[in-house]
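Quick check before the chapter quiz. The format below is the same one you will see on the exam, so make sure you can read both the input and the output lines.
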Amino acid sequence: MKKGDLLELDITGYAFEGKGVAKIIKEVHTLNEEPKRFVVFVTGSYPGDKVLAQVGKIRKSYAEARIKEIIIPSPFRTNPRCGYFGVCGGCQQQNLKYEQQLQYKEAQVKEIFERIGGITGFEFMPIIPGDREYFYRNKMEYSFARRRWLSEEEIGSMQEIADKEFALGLHIPGMYDKVLDINECFLQSELSNRILNFTRFFFKSRSILVYSTQNHDGFLRNLVIRQSEKTDDLMVNLVTAQENERLFTEYKEELLSQFPEITTVINNINLKKSQVATGDYEIVFHGSGYIHDMIGSWKFRISANSFFQTNTLQAEKLYQTAKEFASFRGNEVVYDLYSGAGTIPIFISGNVKEIYGFESVKPAIDDAKINIGINGIKNFEPILADLNKSFLPVVDQMNLPKPDLIIADPPRSGMNPKTVSDILLLKPDKIVYISCNPATQARDIKLLSEGGYRLERVCPVDMFPHTYHIENVALLKKV
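Here is the expected output.
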C-alpha cells in the first residue's frame, strides 16, 4: 500500500471524530507468520458503506483515506438539509440519521474509557439527546475574508468570477484565509440569517475593505450574533480593526430599522493581528451592551466576550445531570474548578452549603460577581486562580474549608497535571468531572483512579447535533 492507492473497502465501524473504520488483512510472508488486521480510517464514511477510497497517510498499524466514490451507501445515511454540507465544516454528520449519531457518540465514549483509558466496572448511562436537531445555538461567529471560497463549478467555468474578494461566512476547515460565503445556516435562527445577509449587503455595497492579517489593513473582521433562548434579548457584535463612528452609526441605524428585535449593538475593536472575534476594547452603540438568558430558574448576564454554554436548553440538562450525580445533602462545601461566569455554582447554589469557584480569566470572575448579584446568591465566592499551576496556595492563603466535593469543567485539553495532583491532596469524597473531550477526560480520570478514586458513573450529553463533539459527565468517589 502506498499514498494515492485506491482501495475498495467495506466500512464496519465508526471512530471518534467521525471516521469510518475498515479492516483489511495484511499479507504474510512466511508460513509461521499470523495474518494481521490493518485498519483504514475513511473520512466521511459510515458503517454499512462500501466505498472506493484514496489512501493518504500511512502508519505502521493504520492508514487514513478519503472517499472517491460511494459504491453502496449505508442504510444510516440521509439527505443533508444544508446546501453547504460537505464544504462547510460546521455540521459534519448532517448526512447521518440523528438516532444513529447518538448511538455512535455513546459507543465512542464507552470505547474511550474502556479501551483507551483502560477503565472498567462503572455504570454507563444512555446518552441524553438534544431536543432540537437544528436552530439550537445561541451564538454564531462569522468571519469576513478577502478570499471567498470558490466552488469547483466556478473554478471550472473559465469565466471571470465576480465578488471573489469579499466573503462573510464560515471558514473552510483547515484553511484560515478562505471563507465560505453563506446566506443560510440552520444552527441559529432564521432571524440570525437575515442579519447576516443584511450585514454582508451593507458593507459590500459600500466597498468597505476586509481586514488582512498579511498587510494589517482593512476594517471588517467578524460578525457575532448572540440570541437568548429564554428572553427576547438579541446582540449584534461587529468586530473591526479600528474605529469608524460615522460608518458604524449608519450601520447601526439601518440595522435597527430592519430588525427592531435587536436589543443591543456593539463594536469590538481588535487591534491585534491574531484572528480572534474579540476586541481590545468595545463601544456600545445601542442598548446595554449585554443580554440575559436563563439556565433553569437562574438568570445570567452575557457580555460580548463572555463564555456561555452555546446550547442553552442542553446546558440545563448537562448541569442537572451533574447535580444528580453529586447527590447533594445540603451541607457540602464545594469547589468548582474552571468556574467561568459562575453558571454551575449558581445552578447548584440552592443545594449546598458553600461554593468556591476557581477561574483563571479575570473578566469571567467579573461576570460571575454580576451574576451573583442578579440572582441574590449568598453562598458562592468566585476566586481568581491560575489552574495551569497549583491552586492550593490560594486555598491556604484564604484559609478556605476543605471541599466535600469538587466539580471540574476544564477546556478540551483537560486538566493540568498539577490540578489533578491538587485534587488528590484535597481528598474530596466525590468528584464530578464535566468534559467536552472524553479522551482527555479519560486520561485525567485514570490518574485520579490511580490516586485513590473509583469511577462510578458516566453519562454523555449531546450538546451539538450533527457534529462530532460530545459532552460527558463522570462521577468519581474516594475509595
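If your answer matched, good. Residues 103-133+311-478 form a domain with the Rossmann fold fold (CATH 3.40.50.150).
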